[in-house]
Design brief:
single chain, mainly alpha, two-stranded antiparallel sheet, 16 helices
Length: 333
């Protein structure tokens, strides 16, 4: 309970209570006044069934209410709203002593008459009067002073309807470590995907991320990602080669060198294989391989023999196509 000598703003507790009592009377008077305006608007133009009345002249409601609004100094929309609110609250159901006109207008959104009339009689949380936020919560509308996390989220969404504001807020939030730490991995991925819809942004982001060794290693552990990178590298090499072939004046001479390089690569591969075998095979002396190990060695020897036959055919005939049997052997089938 407030202390007797407590200061609220620039007044004492006792003076504050006097002001509250005085203003409650004013609010009740305003509520009754608003309902009087609505009642008179209803008298001029009673509520019509949806679709209007057969034979009724079009726009007659708007015309008469516009004239009434102009004659009393209000706008048509204001007058039409008071008319609707008055229609939702019969005189014996109005409670100006516990609810302002604003609260009546908000609770008027409750469709069921009995629910609406019962609701206004029971202010929430043991309160003796309704507040505007209490009424907004009751009908699911945005509150002025958000309390719960969901209300705060709704308020932020409302303030961030402008795309520029939303972008700025999102950027600021994601810079806060305590916020980022509470965002799940799946949600972070969705955010990144959304931000990188633009191809230029995606290229910049991917390039920056792949410069981090740990990221690059884990990314290349994904078969699809690795395949795409390898395909991109091959495509880039092909495009560079095609461009060189089309534009360079020394391309014919280089083609001869290319063939020489291929010959050198082939001879180098032979030497590497022979050298590796020369180092490895002597180590098998007096060592008995298991049946599984011998099977694997024989399978690979078969691959090597088939590959050597393929090389001989390519060297002798210039044909590098492999038959189905050789392809199956090289695939390990």
């Amino acid at each position: 309970m407030a202390e007797e000598n407590e200061i609220i703003g620039a007044v004492s507790q006792s003076r504050y209570e006097q002001i509250v009592a005085e203003l409650r009377e004013v609010v009740e008077q305003q509520t009754r006044g608003q309902f009087t305006i609505g009642d008179r608007a209803l008298e001029v133009e009673p509520m019509r069934p949806r679709g209007g009345v057969a034979g009724e002249r079009e726009y007659t409601v708007e015309e008469s209410l516009t004239r009434l609004a102009e004659d009393i100094g209000l706008t048509f929309s204001t007058l039409n709203t008071t008319r609707w609110v008055a229609s939702r609250w019969p005189k014996d159901r109005r409670r100006p002593e516990i609810a302002s006109y604003t609260v009546h207008r908000t609770l008027a959104n409750i469709e069921n008459d009995e629910v609406r009339f019962t609701t206004i009689l029971t202010p929430p949380d043991g309160k003796s009067r309704w507040s505007t936020d209490d009424a907004n919560r009751q009908v699911g509308q945005r509150v002025e002073t958000p309390v719960t996390p969901q209300e705060k989220v709704t308020a932020i969404h409302s303030l961030a309807r402008d795309a520029e504001v939303a972008a700025r807020v999102t950027t600021d939030f994601l810079k806060r470590p305590q916020v980022a730490a509470k965002v799940s991995a799946e949600e972070k991925v969705r955010v990144v995907e959304e931000f990188t819809r633009d191809e230029g942004v995606a290229i910049t982001a991917a390039t920056s991320l792949l410069r981090r060794p740990d990221v690059a290693f884990k990314a290349m552990s994904d078969d699809t990602a690795r395949f795409q990178v390898n395909s991109a590298q091959a495509e880039r090499t092909r495009q560079a080669h095609d461009h060189f072939e089309r534009t360079s004046p020394v391309a014919p001479a280089v083609r001869n060198i290319d063939r020489t390089v291929e010959f050198l690569d082939l001879v180098t591969a032979f030497h590497a294989f022979v050298a590796a075998a020369g180092r490895t095979v002597p180590g098998l002396r007096d060592r008995q391989l298991s049946e599984d190990e011998r099977t694997i060695v024989h399978q690979n020897v078969a691959k090597v023999k088939a590959t050597l036959d393929w090389i001989e055919t390519a060297v002798d005939t210039g044909k590098v196509d492999m038959d189905d049997e050789l392809a199956a052997i090289l695939r390990g089938e």
